[in-house]
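2024-03-11 09:14:02 INFO worker-7 job=invfold-0412 stage=load source=structure_tokens
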């Protein structure tokens, strides 16, 4: 029996290879969006950036539309870590807001690409449907937290869940766009706690007339 020979690494399955290739293509697309904007993204340029042929990109996504749809979903998924096990309600909503603003300061390529695509969606027909769907899912998540807070009595009874969701989404995305435009003007580490505290005071059922939360 031979000893000292390196063990052969198991061959990757077709699904593993496909997953790895797809992730590389999405990473390349995100880099192109950040560097040159969505109009610079083509299947050929994505393939070239990732080290593959255009045919591989077409095989994976079929079209630029499908590629951008996949990028939008991948770049926003799991954006705020650490809240998956927190039950819906006031605490989860405040943690989500705080975490979202803090993550905006990480300057990750995926996060920046998402914000640029989101801003572009206002005038780009190929993006508007995808981002309407993504925003509606986010608003539903936020509304669910408010509804839970109303049920358990931790949030003010006069709140309208949908209105709170629209306002929260608008604020956190607006902060993100400001940071893209002028990073030095937006201290997300400090701002994350301030914004989260403002929302807790605004939503909490125990807040007094001066907006302070009573223990």
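2024-03-11 09:14:09 INFO worker-7 stage=emit residues=215
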């Amino acid at each position: 029996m031979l000893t000292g020979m390196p063990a052969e690494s198991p061959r990757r399955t077709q699904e593993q290879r496909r997953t790895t290739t797809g992730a590389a293509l999405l990473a390349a697309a995100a880099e192109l969006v950040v560097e040159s904007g969505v109009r610079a993204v083509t299947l050929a340029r994505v393939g070239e950036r990732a080290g593959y042929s255009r045919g591989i990109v077409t095989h994976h996504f079929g079209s630029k539309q499908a590629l951008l749809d996949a990028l939008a979903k991948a770049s926003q998924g799991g954006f705020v870590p650490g809240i998956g096990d927190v039950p819906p309600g006031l605490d989860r909503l405040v943690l989500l807001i705080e975490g979202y603003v803090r993550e905006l300061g990480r300057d990750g390529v995926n996060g920046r690409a998402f914000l640029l695509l989101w801003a572009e969606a206002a005038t780009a027909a190929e993006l508007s449907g995808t981002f309407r769907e993504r925003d509606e899912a986010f608003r539903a998540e936020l509304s669910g937290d408010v509804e839970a807070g109303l049920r358990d009595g931790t949030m003010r009874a006069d709140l309208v869940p949908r209105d709170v969701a629209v306002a929260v989404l608008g604020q956190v995305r607006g902060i993100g766009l400001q940071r893209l435009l002028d990073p030095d003007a937006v201290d997300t580490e400090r701002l994350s706690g301030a914004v989260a505290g403002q929302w807790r005071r605004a939503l909490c059922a125990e807040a007094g007339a001066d907006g302070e939360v009573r223990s």
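2024-03-11 09:14:09 INFO worker-7 stage=report msg="Residues 14-71 form a domain with the Arc Repressor Mutant, subunit A fold (CATH 1.10.10.60)."
2024-03-11 09:14:10 INFO worker-7 job finished
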